[in-house]
Amino acid sequence: MRRLTRWLLDTGPIVVLALIAGAGSFTHIRDTAADHGQTGWMSWAIAVCIDLTCVMAARERQRDKKTGRSPRGWISWPVLVLAGGVLLSLAANLAQAVPTAWGWITAATPAAAFLVAISMLERRSSATRPEDVSIPSSPVPDRPALVPEVEEGPAPDPALVDYARRVADEHTTQYGKPITRDALRARLGVSNQLASDLLRTVR
C-alpha cells in the first residue's frame, strides 16, 4: 500500500498530464481528419493511430536503450517514427487553431504536453533500479583466489534460513530474477561466506 501511494504521488501527475494532453491532441486530429473527408469511425481510427504510434515509438526507444541496440548517434528508427507522429499531431492541432499567434500556441499545447509526458514516463521507466546497482564490496577483503574455500561448513541457523528464503522469494517476485549473493548479504547484514551458504541452501 505504501509503495502504491508513493507511485501515485510520484508518477500520478505525469500520467494524468499524458491522458489530458493525449485527449486534447486526439480531438484535434479527429476533427482535422473529419474536416478533410475522413468521417465517421475513420477519423477516430486516424487519431488513435497517430497517438499510439508516438507511445509505441517511445517505448521502442526505451527498449533499444535497455538491450543496447541503440545506434551511436541519436537518430534511430523509433526516433524517426516518434518525430513523424509528433509532427502529424502538431500539424493537426495547428490546423484547428484560430490563425493568430495565441491561437497557434494554445492549439499546439496538447501535442507538446503529450510529448513531454511521454518523455518523462520513458525517463522514469529506464531509470536504474536499486537492485541493479552494484553493491559495494565488504570492507573486509576476500580471501585470495588461490586459497580454496571450504565447500561444507556448519549448517546455518534454521530461522535465518527461513528469513533468507523469504527475502529471496520477495526479490524474485518483485524483480523477476533470482537474488544474488551480494544483494542477500546486504539485506541480511551477514558475511560473504554465510551469504553464500544461505543462498546455496535456499536454492
Automatic annotation (TrEMBL):
<feature type="region of interest" description="Disordered">
    <location>
        <begin position="128"/>
        <end position="154"/>
    </location>
</feature>
<dbReference type="InterPro" id="IPR021235">
    <property type="entry name" value="DUF2637"/>
</dbReference>
<feature type="transmembrane region" description="Helical">
    <location>
        <begin position="101"/>
        <end position="121"/>
    </location>
</feature>
<keyword id="KW-1133">Transmembrane helix</keyword>
<protein>
    <recommendedName>
        <fullName>DUF2637 domain-containing protein</fullName>
    </recommendedName>
</protein>
<keyword id="KW-0812">Transmembrane</keyword>
<keyword id="KW-0472">Membrane</keyword>
<feature type="transmembrane region" description="Helical">
    <location>
        <begin position="74"/>
        <end position="95"/>
    </location>
</feature>
<feature type="transmembrane region" description="Helical">
    <location>
        <begin position="7"/>
        <end position="29"/>
    </location>
</feature>
<feature type="transmembrane region" description="Helical">
    <location>
        <begin position="41"/>
        <end position="58"/>
    </location>
</feature>
<dbReference type="Pfam" id="PF10935">
    <property type="entry name" value="DUF2637"/>
</dbReference>
